[in-house]
Amino acid sequence: MTNTISSSAQETGFLVAALYHFVSVPRFADLRAPLQALCEENGVRGTLLLAHEGINGTIAGPHAGIRTVLAFLRGQPEFAGLEHKESHAADMPFLRMKVRLKKEIVTMGVEDIDPNRSVGTYVAPADWNALISDPDTILIDTRNDYETAIGIFKGAVDPNTKTFREFPDWVRQNTGLHNKPKIAMYCTGGIRCEKATAFMKEQGFDEVYHLKGGILKYLEEVPAEESLWEGACFVFDERVSVTHGLEEGEHKLCRACRHPLTAEEITSPLYEAGVSCPHCHEARSEEDRMRFRQRQKQMDLARKRGERHLGK
Question: Does the structure show a pLDDT above 80 at 312?
Fold first, then answer.
């Protein structure tokens, strides 16, 4: 199934495809080389993760190149039902193409969590507002703190996790989550919630729901005037963030700590391009900053030559 942001979208700039699919793939290692080669041949960049449990990633490239890669994936029996979400970028949002073999396509660190066996109930973006406005619902953001810092659904509980591995312990420690009958969960594109809702089911929560297609699908389909989303959505590419209609946001990325920055934070005296920002300045030594300044210098020189520095 193909999800596009607009049937009238012109094929200009770069097409960005976010995808994941949980399915048993015993031969996943055999797919790495041909998939890497195909992407490179078609001008496609980004990251794709392959594991026994499926595929996950985001890629960008010319429209024809993305279509070719998606057709190849759906031509594999395991990925015949693969869905993806599309958006657009004026500039190529990735520096290189990486196809990686992993133990998990999204790392939770809990053994035997299988979304194909048990998972929460999917809720379409059109029905999401009603669910999260229900007083019997606890709404949980399953993303990490640097993501929730720039945008979150109104009324959501923020676990303030540094990594997804911390989420299971956060659930175990918050017994108050049992105080209401419904648990609603969301993440960027939907994949973390596949495992998060499966975990919640195993923890004894009966009514567990998650936003189908994640925040990205909600921002694509729900008009801004009806939206309960506040802020921007962090994305893992050079766009940094997107807003309603999947328009590129105004955030920049600190190259030292990878934290998204607002326009106000960029004017802070603690911000130095490629070196530090208000979020990481105190955690860096002067030796770190000297090293980052040298890296930034090389990036600036590469930019002047019309090249892209891979250390970026």
Answer: no
Against a cut of 0.90, is the pTM above it?
A: no
Decide: 171 and 203 in contact? Cβ < 8 Å: yes
Average pLDDT over residues 32-36: 98
Cβ neighbors of 115 (< 8 A, separation 6 or more) are 22, 194, 195, 197, 198
DSSP bridge partners of 101: 50
Q: Could you say which of 39, 187, 233, 254 is catalytic?
A: 187
Residues in CB range of 105: below 8 A, 6 or more apart: 20, 22, 49, 50, 51, 53, 54, 55, 56, 191
CA gap 44, 21 in Å, rounded: 19
- At 205-229, the pLDDT tens digits run 999 999 999 999 999 999 999 999 9
- Spell out the residues 6+ positions from residue 206 whose beta carbon is closer than 8 angstroms to its own: 181
Sequence-separated contacts (24+) of 235-239 with Cβ below 8 Å:
235/58, 235/188, 236/58, 236/188, 237/16, 237/46, 237/58, 237/60, 237/89, 237/93, 237/94, 238/89, 238/91, 238/92, 238/93, 238/94, 238/95, 239/16, 239/89, 239/93
193 as an active site residue: the answer is: no
d(CA 138, CA 136): 7
pLDDT of residue 308: 57
Only one residue has tokens 């999917």, namely 122
3-state secondary structure of 34: helix
The Cβ of residue 189 has, within 10 Å, a number of other Cβ atoms equal to 22
